[in-house]
Design goal:
The complex is a heterodimer. In chain A, 0% of the residues lie in helices and 53% in strands. Chain A is an all-beta fold. In chain A, the strands form two sheets. In chain A, strands 2, 4, 5, 9, 10 and 11 form a six-stranded mixed sheet that branches. A five-stranded antiparallel sheet of chain A has the order 1-3-8-7-6, with no helix packed on it. Chain A is globular and about 50 Å long. The chains are: A mainly beta, B mainly beta.
Amino acid sequence: RKEVEQDPGPFNVPEGATVAFNCTYSNSASQSFFWYRQDCRKEPKLLMSVYSSGNEDGRFTAQLNRASQYISLLIRDSKLSDSATYLCVVNIPQVTGTASKLTFGTGTRLQVTL
Amino acid sequence: DTEVTQTPKHLVMGMTNKKSLKCEQHMGHRAMYWYKQKAKKPPELMFVYSYEKLSINESVPSRFSPECPNSSLLNLHLHALQPEDSALYLCASSQVGTVSGANVLTFGAGSRLTVL
């Protein structure tokens, strides 16, 4: 089983639609969860961190379900500019005092159309 | 303006060449990372440095040799690469431990490598 898995997509949605992405992770010791956005031929950029209680930033809502080991991202009122690849990132803790292994899911491509 | 700077942006090299990719950050981050990304694939972790010491090597072939001269700089030395090593090489940095912002990666714009 892969350490981090995502819906492969692509998701093609009309402007204004609501779209949801899921991501599952295999290591129960993981403590940090993130959603990144990557535009074509650009570097990934942090969209939002995911907290236990769930968190919202404008049209974007992230949820964490530790029992089932998955995180989700909900985008409401999709805009053309939301078209990108969405990557979930999960940490795998290492030896105390060293950086975690930060592993990316396979990514889900979103295309928002008129 | 990106806070992680990578040079060069593009590099073309032959299989017998030796070249280096460079990365610099001035955010006071004590973890630095090299990722490799092929087209339509996610970034794949190669190396992690924590406090200037190599803490993770994801079984990367020895033709890739990382170096962390100080807390702001990260290099990736390349020698005898293969055409299948052609990819976007991304450098990132983060805080370490439980401080605010730990594990949040800030990426450079990447170095696009073509091996002929």
